Give the backbone structure.
Amino acid sequence: MILQDKVALVTGGSSGIGRATAIAFGAAGANVVFSDVRSVEGEETAALIRETGAECLFVKSDVSSEADVQALVQKTVATYGKLDCAFNNAGIDLAVKPLHEQSIEDFDKIMSINARGLFLCMKYEIQQMLTQGAGAIVNNSSTNGLVALPGISPYVASKHAVMGLTR
């Protein structure tokens, strides 16, 4: 229970690494707030977190929306009184194809969620943590934030942005 009385926020918490992290925060004693755009999976994750004995709150939100991210942080603080740690995990990848076949719509969608979403999360999390005088943020990138692979150029660019914003 090393995180007893702490409040943890996880974006992209309805599946995969985000879900596993949200459950781990709960098992370590934290009150968990997590977000995703998928409600059904969000409710499934909430049930798994509650099985650890932790309190949790699922907030449907889109990290590419400034209003959604601001509301997510505000709801976290309104519910639990603070924000001790954040795991910014929300991200997407789309079709694998050469750069010259990628659409601008796909590029914009990936960058909007993976890079803009991270920026927005950090902006509002940092504001809250500065108000409190403490907090910790972990941003999830990818090995593609360090090296590139063919066929996923927009994803690689977005994960390089994650690394840059984190540094």
About this structure: The mean pLDDT is 95. The domain at 7-94+119-141 is CATH 3.40.50.720 (Rossmann fold).
